[in-house]
Amino acid sequence: MTVVYAVIAFGVLIFVHELGHLLAAKAVKIRVNDFSIGMGPRLCGFKMGETSYSLRLFPIGGSCSMDEDESSDDPRSFNNRPRLARLLVLVAGSAMNLLLGVIIIFCLIAPSGAVTDGVISAFPPEIEGSNGGLEVGDRIISINGERVYVAGSDVSMLLSRYSAPYDIVVERKGEKMKIDADLKLGQYTDQSGEKYTGYGIMLSVRELDFWGKLEYTLRYSANYVRMIRFSLVDLFSGKVGADQLSGPVGITATISRAADQKQFGVFFNLVGFIAINLAVMNLLPLPALDGGRVLFLAIEAVMALFGRKRLDPKYENYIHLAGLGLLLLLMVFVTYNDIVRLIS
């Protein structure tokens, strides 16, 4: 059943993404031929108006077919509609995933009465007075140019990501100050007398009303977007190897473990993170992704400024097919790594 939960979660994410494309296409009067959830043989379906709706055997994808890779004389075909209409359709899928992720995070935060704030409340007994130039009452705004969105996780994450001395911006008595703080990772004692590993800073807790919870949700979501950026930077810089990538198998295993241990908060938090991850990754300017199509749309707009005809959709399709082939090879690679990790 835990695997079923993971499959259902993926199915919902795919459905929401494709639904975004469908609703946007209908709104801007682009003809949609087929709306499918899953891939492979058709299990069931129906036709309503000009669009066929179907559920397919393998729950690993979906499609909203609008003849975007073909030339057509139909004025309602994707390529014959205005660029703004096509742009709205292309970004609508990611927008829906992002909205779903934000809603899930808000539902997880809403029951909480208070959260960790970015204001320094105290220093452990091993440190007297101040730590690296920081003082009690300072609100930590950014570390090494990276904004602190969620203090409870961001402060330790950013301090561990960079090396001392840190460029920390704080708000002290209503004014912003820049401090070169030389914080040390070590063993400290918390307020209950327990030992912990950290940087010698204790943060305050603040109560949240409805609007505070909404603001915290947006901060939490922005933090997830930044985590994706960090992951991409680490991957392309070589800090993290390609063998550390996870695909559907690895993600399903992680979600399944959370469901199996009845950690439903963790389960839905993972689903929210994956929803935001899909929104961001799908808008990367790579062939076969929506972001790649947005890139070609931008190229088309630039060509129009110089009186040039747009690239033949047939050749654009070849590029997207090549990109899809590379993505499938990457999928095979990460799936192999996922299976090896599961077996080992």
Brief write-up:
By secondary structure, this protein is α+β, with helices and mostly antiparallel strands.
Describe it for me?
The chain has 344 residues and is of the alpha+beta class. It has two domains: 2-31 and 66-110 and 246-343, no CATH class; 114-207, PDZ domain (Pdz3 Domain, Roll), CATH 2.30.42.10. Helix content is 49%, strand content 22%. It is built from eight helices and ten strands. It has helices at residues 2-27, 83-109, 151-161, 210-237, 248-260, 264-281, 290-305, 313-343, and strands spanning 34-48, 51-65, 114-122, 139-143, 146-147, 166-172, 175-181, 186-189, 195-198, 202-207. It has a four-stranded antiparallel beta sheet with strand order 5-4-6-7, covered by helices on one side. The longest helix has 31 residues, at 313-343. It starts with a helix and ends with a helix. The model has no long low-confidence stretch (mean pLDDT 86).
Topology of this structure?
Layout: H1 2-27, E1 34-48, E2 51-65, H2 83-109, E3 114-122, E4 139-143, E5 146-147, H3 151-161, E6 166-172, E7 175-181, E8 186-189, E9 195-198, E10 202-207, H4 210-237, H5 248-260, H6 264-281, H7 290-305, H8 313-343
Antiparallel strand pairs: 1-2, 3-10, 4-5, 4-6, 6-7, 8-9
